[in-house]
Structures are given as C-alpha cells and as structure tokens.
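TICKET: design request
STATUS: open
ATTACHED STRUCTURE:
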C-alpha cells in the first residue's frame, strides 16, 4: 500500500492497457442526450482520449517525484478515487440499464462526467501546491 502512495503514477499508467482492452472486446457507442442535443461517442475514441489523459496525469505525478516535490497524499487519493471510480461508472453502468431507463442513464453520465472533470482540479491544485511548497 505504501508503494502505491509513492508510485501513484504507475496506477494511471497501468490502467491505460486495461481501458484499451475493455474497448477491444466491446466497442459500442456511448449515447448522451442533453436537452435538445444528442451526442454519440465511440468507446474507442473515448478510451483513447482517456488513455492520453492518464498518460499525462501519470507523467505529471512522475515528474513531481523526480523533482523531489512533496505532493499531498489526501489530494492524490481524492483525485485517484474519483477519477477512476467515475470512469468505472461510465464504462460499467450501461450494462445494468435497459432502454426504458435512458433518461436516468443520461443523467448519470452527465453528472459523472462533471464530477470527473471537476476532480481534475484536485490534480492541478496538488501539482501547483507541490511546486510552490518548500
């Protein structure tokens, strides 16, 4: 457990092949309806984008370790749990809903997406605090 706290960048880097493998076996489209707009995402494109984001996040954490900057462990945990948990919700929940509950699924996708986006503020806050901390 202590090794994961010290090498938390590995968590994000190791999830990249897992995300790509999930999409390799199931490449359905992700449909999101917001008011009058209807957005359709290929899970391949979405997982490629998420993999690139995880690569950048892992690189940022790795760089802070190499520069010997002290990151806040609480911010690391909050960022990691909410980001990875939110992505699990996005990829797993379509299997538990049927077509009759599409509005509930859309609301869940929008809220989860917003949580994931705002969670990245914890990442940037942690990096900025580590840079300016002595």
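STATUS: resolved
RESOLUTION: sequence designed for all positions
ATTACHED SEQUENCE:
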């Amino acid at each position: 457990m202590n090794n994961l706290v010290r090498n938390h960048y590995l968590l994000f880097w190791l999830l990249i092949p897992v995300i790509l493998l999930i999409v390799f076996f199931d490449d359905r489209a992700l449909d999101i309806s917001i008011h009058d707009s209807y957005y359709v995402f290929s899970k391949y494109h979405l997982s490629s984008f998420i993999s690139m984001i995880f690569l950048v996040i892992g690189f940022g954490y790795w760089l802070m370790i190499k520069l010997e900057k002290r990151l806040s462990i609480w911010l690391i945990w909050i960022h990691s749990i909410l980001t990875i948990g939110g992505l699990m919700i996005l990829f797993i929940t379509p299997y538990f809903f049927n077509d009759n509950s599409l509005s509930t699924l859309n609301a869940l996708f929008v809220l989860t997406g917003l949580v994931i986006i705002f969670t990245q503020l914890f990442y940037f806050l942690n990096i900025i605090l580590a840079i300016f901390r002595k």
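CLOSING REMARK: The chain has a mean pLDDT of 84. The two ends are 26 Å apart (CA to CA).
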